[in-house]
Each structure stands twice: as structure tokens, then as C-alpha cells.
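QA checklist item 7 of 12: single-chain prediction sanity check.
[x] sequence parsed
[x] length recorded as 519
[x] structure emitted
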Amino acid sequence: MSTCGIPLERHARSEPLNFSEPRPWPTGTPPAEDFCKEDERLVILSGFHADDLFGDEELARITRFAARLCNAPSAAVSLVEAHRQRFVTGEGIGVSETPRSTSFCAHTMLGHDLLEVLDATQDPRFAEFAMVRGDAHLRYYAGAPLISAEGAPLGALCVTDTVPRSEPLSDFQREGLAVLAEAVMRRLHAHRQANMADSELKESADRLQFMLDSVPDIAWSAAPGPHFDYFNARFSEVTGRAPLQDVEDWRTIIHPDDFEATAIKFQHALDTATFFEDEWRLRLADGSFRWVISRAVPSTADPATARWFGTLTDIHDRYSISQERELLAGELAHRIKNIFSVITGLISLNARGDKALSEFAASITDNIRALSRAQDFALNIDPEPEDNLKELLGVLMSPYGVGDSSAVIITGDNVITGARATTPLALVFHELATNSAKYGALSVAEGAVSITIEQADADVRIEWRETGGPPTQPPQDKGFGSRLVTMAIEHQLGGKIAQDWQPDGLIAHISIPAARLRQ
């Protein structure tokens, strides 16, 4: 009988083995030749973790049934190691292992079919084995090979008797023993898969733990309640404290002036299972405080079952710089306002006592105050939480008169405008309005400007239309103002502008990505 005679390339897979879905080794096929090499075979065998299989109930049931099927007093699942064979489960077997040198199963596993020995004393391969000559008095043996999915011989499912037999197993018994051997291999593969999954989960958890402990942020998680059950190593490094248990424990690390407000916000997030974000001061191990941004997300939308995962990110330096910038911007705005106040004061002072000049001075003063308000908006000083484009344009165009019966009419959709977009928008419409006041519709009493805002999919479209003004024509050369408009629209806002010079006034079409306007 040929043993391990089938080349690996004919029966082993050429692609890497997928242990998540093992295919059984083809029935009636000898083991793969390369896996009959002892070093390679033992590597595969070690992956089945034989030590964990002792006493396995499923294997025990298979073994008991194998003994009954073959009318034998003894049966076992044997795994053959380098120097011994181990019976991971047995029926009527009084030992847990025997030397490999006297192992029947070591012969069985190298073949392609059932090995049956009717009388071992008459078989020259086994007659001198200790189990045959000694007290075990083994006479009859039948074993089905156990071959792994990749073709490595592992051992055998065997039945034994102390009495020799004159007749071999029936075809039904032989088929049954082969089917039971396949069931043993399914159990062994399931056990290997479970061990591999556990190992992969542990490795994944270790990698995640290493990553979380390596990042500069503090990371935490909480079970429903909330009951805080995890903090990465960064937490203790920064705060010098043991992990927290509940919300009240956070009082020890949050600035007293910040705790109540942020606790209320967090409780609302817990009650509604919604995203949480807040900024507060974290107490460090040395007793000092630093600003952090605290974020947390729920695992589900059900407040009763949601787990929470959160981070604390240090923003102290950024916060300090932002505070300094806001202070400087505020100081700049106040100084500009003071200049406007000085100008209006000088106008009023010089117009005092002259009725004609006083009326003119009042009009000029109103215009200057409108420009001052536009300056505040452009510098984004004390912005409203939902400033929109119509409000911004209303402020910018107020010196020229805004309203249904005035020279400037603004209509259309409400579009939210962010702080970064405000300044380029102010520059663009100030330039358009200034040119119109000098040369276009706003330079004459009967002239008018309509500004229409339309939210169209991902873009915001703005039309500037002048009517009733003097004849217009495109400028011969692009001056500083034209270049400024182009730079603001195309470079700063990522949009486009097209100007159409009609006989009674300019029509400008502006298109800007809505996302850029919200910045």
C-alpha cells in the first residue's frame, strides 16, 4: 500500500488556506506528501491544541458510538505527536498515551483508507509491539485516518479488541467508521477555528489597546447607566488618578466653574442617545488646568441600552491663541468704531448751526454708521449663531438704502454664512456697490439694484442686477477692484462670477459652493 505518495501540488490548495471555512480532505486520498514531512506535520498538529480536547464530550460520543458500531469493547481518538500517541478521548482505554514507536494509528494516518488488523500476533508489522505482547493483549485493530483540511496526517479514530477476529468489518461498518472519522475532523477543525478566532480577537484587542495607550488623547467607554468601564493609559498619566466610576466622579477632574454646565449637557445626551460635545478645563496631576474638548458618541439610538465611547482632546494652546486673536480682533473693531465715531463727531461739529449742512451731515452720519455695522459683520465680532447671507447683504448695502421702496432690494433663500466666508463676501459686494454708486444704477436717483439669492443643490447662486442707471460698458482694463472681486470669489470661496454689461446696468451672476459659504 502506498503511503503519502500523492504529490502536494495535486491535492493541496495552491492558495493560502482559509481556516474560517475548512474543506475536508478528499475521502480515499492519501495525505499531502509535503505535510508528511515531520516538521511540517507537527506545525499543523500543534494548531489543534490537543491539550484542550481531553474530555471533549462530542468526541466522547463519537468514540462510544464507534465502539458499538464495530462491536468492540474499546475505541479512541488518537493524535500522533513526535514521540507518542495521545488518546484525547477513549472508550474502554485504560491509558492516555503510548509510545509512537508501537502505535497502530501512526501507520493508519499515512494511508488513504481504513486499516484493519484481524490478529496482530500474525501481522509482522505489529506482532512485536508491547501492546500486543504485553498485558494490554491487543489483538484486533481497525482505524480510519484523520487528515487535516490541508492534508496533514494527524492520527486515527480506532476500535480495538483483545480477541482476534476471523471476519473483517462489514461494508456498512467500514462506511460508518469513515463517516465518524469525518465527524471527528469537523470537531477538530471547529476547535481549531475557535482557538484561531480567540487568538485573533486577543491580538486585535492588544493592538487596539496599544493604539489607544499611544495616542495623545484620553479615551474612555461606558456601559449603560452610565458606568465607566474603560480608560486608556493616557488618563492616569495626565490626571494622576485611577479610572472613574460614574458621572459624579468627574467632578474631581473638571474645573468647579465648568462641571455643572457640562454635566447637564452630558445628561441630556444620555437621555436622548445623541452626540455630546463640550469644552471645559481638565485638572492635571500637578493641580493645574488645561482646556479640553470632550466628545462622546452612543453605540445605539436607544438610551437604555447604548454604550458610550468618548475622548478628551487637549485644545489649551489652540484655545489660548483663539482667545488672543479674539481679543485683538475686538480691540481692532473697537478702534475702528472709534475712528467712525470721531468722523461722525467732526461732521456734526462742522455742520452745527447750518441747517442745510445739518441735514446733509445727518445723512452722511447714517451712512457711516451703516459702514461701521458692516465692518463689525466683516470682522465677525460677536456673530449671531445663525447669520445668513441676506442679513449680511442687508448690512453691507444699508448705506445705499435697503427695502421694498428703496434703491436696493434683497430677496431669495436664507443661506447660512460662516465666519471665514464673511470677509470675502463683504469685499465683493462693497466693490460692486461702490462701482454702482460711482458709475452705475446707484449713481442716479431713479436707479435700483436687486439682489436675488437661490440655493441650488450644492451651490448658492446670487444675481446682482442693476436697472435704471446710465449706459454702461465693460472696463477697458481690469483695475484693482476687479481683480479683488475675482480673487475673493474664485480663490477664497471657490466660486465663479460672470458679468454682463447691459445698456441700463450691470448684471453679475455669482455661483459659490454652499459648503464654502458655511465655513
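[x] summary fact logged: Confidence is low (pLDDT under 50) at residues 5-20, 381-386.
[ ] second reviewer sign-off
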